[in-house]
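**User:**
My hope is that you can spare some time for a protein that puzzles me. This is the protein in question:
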Amino acid sequence: MEALLASTMLSMGASAVLLPFNVGAQTEQEDARRTVALYFARELMEEIIVKPFDDPQDAEGLGADAGESSRALYDNIDDYDGYEDGYGKAIDQIVGVSKQTIDSLSTEGLSREVTVAYLYVSGQDSGGPANFVSVTVTMKYYDDTLLTIRRLVHNPSVQ
């Protein structure tokens, strides 16, 4: 009976000692996931904002234009509206800036979503070209949002 009680006490003590290490390992894993997610969000954001504001084909509306069936063919900022890659998406892996898929344990469960919106300043005619575009890249881990980054891009052709 004493041996049973002693082993029970020892296991409870060991659990109490190991718990902080387990929590620390989980926190480290979450931090590493956020770091990887931030890297891929920034990478995609930089790819987007270096594109021209105006569409070279003078196409109207947000999203990929006719004939732009892949990200490699996008020729301006608004083409990225609705772009998604990674876990649970049509493109089931994160696609790097050089258009290669990233197949790694570090990206498991990660996905990206892009939203682009035209913004007009107060008093501006909304029938003309927008002054700004807002670009949002959201990173998710499975279905939970990990982080969101936003950039405001000025239209150089509007004074």
About this structure: The CA atoms of residues 8 and 57 lie 74 Å apart. The radius of gyration is 23 Å. The mean pLDDT is 85. The longest helix spans residues 2-49.
